[in-house]
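worker-3 :: picked Stage V sporulation protein AE
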Amino acid sequence: MDYVKAFLVGGAICALVQILMDQTKLMPGRIMVILVVLGAFLGAIGVYEPFVEFAGAGASVPLTGFGNVLFKGVKEAILKDGWVGIFEGGLTSSSVGISAALIFSYIASWIFDSKMKE
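worker-3 :: tokens ->
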């Protein structure tokens, strides 16, 4: 049942983003920023964590989950180190995901022959 919830919630988030892309003139980069900020905001007001507990990967994998992870890292670092935590908290909390994305994209560049769009 966990897989079904994750699939439905993640699919609903993706469907809402697709509707946003189709119905507005917002560029994809701006939509990505909106999702990250929305995740951080929902985490700050305490709504996103119960959502993640319910939906699992369906809520933690999309960009809103990344924003929530950044917020949690900054919050913990501020409590531990003071205001210096603003600069280090988000990086330390999300470093594994960012590193994995870089490593796997580098490996994929070896396997596949990428070309520029013409």
